[in-house]
């Protein structure tokens, strides 16, 4: 009997990368709708610019590498990176911030390592962290959400903010995580009473809770479509929840913030369902995904409470991207019969 000789990997069934990436983009729509409703069209402008820069950079590098443009651009991986960057960056940030983030994501974090499937770090988070460290002022200017803002920026004012040096300071305010992090003297109930952003929100700040609920809905849709498994998102949210409960200490001035604040403010749900589930830069085994997600949840809380940045999803993800191969080494199941063969070999040795 003759056997077919084929090298690994041995895939069972067709993996349609294009379809998966389109589904991920579709899953971001509820969160994007909430961002647009509460903060205006800034995120839409971000995504449009990021698509132009990411797809342009991808095409340029593929051309230099003499790779077929159509084949690689049609996998939608660069488009997913652009959408995630556009969602993560502050609305109405300058166009050159989006450009630097996009080029860093595609050129440095993806193509420098060989393209899709070879990048050890999440490209969108690399691009985000590069501009967060390089341009802290521009990255801290989040607009005031409805209903606190008297009006959202018009299309003309939004484009002026993005493409000129004139800012829209009248539209900006601190985020919910910023307010809690900067507090060092008031009890948490006083912080909520004195800040309209927190007072107007039912869970974690006006606008922000709806944005996170939108990404939660999109994430549940992706779980339903079996784009990824539940292990990493659930373990991240569970670990973050446990840390928040242990660190709340009844709301003293040293409190790290409530459970609802950590779950429904900042980039928590975007990170849990759209960032840490990246199949390339995360772990591959079931146990590994649980460890990977839990470690990210703990790091997010530690950096938010003790670090210099009010939100920490990007840093936590990149730190655990470093550790993903190590986790896989100790959690990927052994091949069938491996332990039995090893024991037999050890018995034969003198």
TrEMBL record:
Biological process according to GO: electron transport chain; transmembrane transport
InterPro entries: NqrB/RnfD, RnfD_bac
Descriptive protein name: Ion-translocating oxidoreductase complex subunit D
Alphabetical list of NCBIfam families matching this protein: PRK00816.1 (NF002011), rnfD (TIGR01946)
Subcellular location(s) per record: Cell inner membrane
Sequence positions bearing FMN phosphoryl threonine: 175
Functional description taken from the UniProt entry: Part of a membrane-bound complex that couples electron transfer with translocation of ions across the membrane.
UniProt record similarity statement: Belongs to the NqrB/RnfD family.
Membrane-spanning segments: 71-89, 230-248, 260-277, 289-306, 312-332
Principal localisation: membrane
E.C. code: 7.-.-.-
GO cellular component: plasma membrane
Subunit organization: The complex is composed of six subunits: RnfA, RnfB, RnfC, RnfD, RnfE and RnfG.
Protein's organism: Pseudoteredinibacter isoporae
Superkingdom per UniProt: Bacteria
Membrane topology according to the record: Multi-pass membrane protein
PANTHER family (UniProt xref): ELECTRON TRANSPORT COMPLEX PROTEIN RNFD, ION-TRANSLOCATING OXIDOREDUCTASE COMPLEX SUBUNIT D
Cofactor(s) in the UniProt record: FMN
Keywords recorded for this protein, A-Z: Cell inner membrane, Cell membrane, Electron transport, Flavoprotein, FMN, Membrane, Phosphoprotein, Translocase, Transmembrane, Transmembrane helix, Transport
């Amino acid at each position: 009997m003759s056997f077919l000789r084929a090298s690994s990997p041995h895939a069972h069934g067709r993996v349609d990368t294009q379809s998966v990436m389109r589904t991920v983009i579709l899953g971001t729509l509820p969160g994007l709708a909430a961002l647009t409703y509460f903060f205006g069209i800034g995120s839409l402008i971000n995504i449009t610019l990021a698509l132009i820069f990411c797809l342009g950079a991808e095409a340029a590098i593929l051309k230099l590498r003499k790779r077929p443009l159509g084949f690689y651009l049609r996998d939608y991986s660069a488009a997913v990176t652009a959408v995630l960057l556009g969602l993560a960056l502050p609305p109405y940030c300058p166009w050159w911030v989006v450009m630097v983030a996009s080029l860093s994501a595609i050129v440095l974090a993806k193509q420098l390592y060989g393209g899709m499937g070879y990048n050890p770090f999440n490209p969108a988070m690399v691009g985000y962290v590069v501009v967060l460290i390089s341009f802290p002022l521009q990255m801290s200017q989040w607009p005031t959400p409805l209903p606190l803002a008297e009006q959202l920026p018009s299309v003309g004012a939004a484009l002026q903010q993005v493409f000129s040096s004139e800012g829209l300071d009248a539209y900006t305010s601190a985020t919910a995580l910023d307010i809690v992090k900067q507090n060092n003297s008031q009890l948490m109930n006083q912080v909520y009473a004195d800040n309209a952003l927190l007072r107007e929100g039912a869970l974690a700040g006006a606008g922000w809770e709806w944005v996170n609920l939108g990404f939660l809905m999109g994430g549940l849709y992706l779980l339903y479509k079996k784009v990824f498994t539940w292990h990493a998102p659930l373990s991240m949210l569970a670990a973050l929840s446990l840390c928040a409960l242990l660190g709340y200490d009844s709301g003293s001035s040293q409190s790290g913030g409530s459970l609802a604040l950590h779950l429904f403010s900042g980039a928590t749900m975007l990170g849990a369902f759209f960032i840490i589930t990246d199949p390339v830069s995360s772990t591959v085994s079931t146990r590994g995904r649980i460890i990977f997600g839990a470690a990210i949840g703990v790091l997010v809380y530690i950096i938010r409470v003790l670090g210099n940045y009010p939100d920490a999803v990007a840093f936590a993800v990149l730190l655990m991207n470093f550790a993903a191969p190590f986790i896989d080494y100790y959690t990927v199941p052994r091949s069938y019969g491996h332990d039995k063969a090893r024991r037999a070999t050890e018995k034969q040795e003198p």
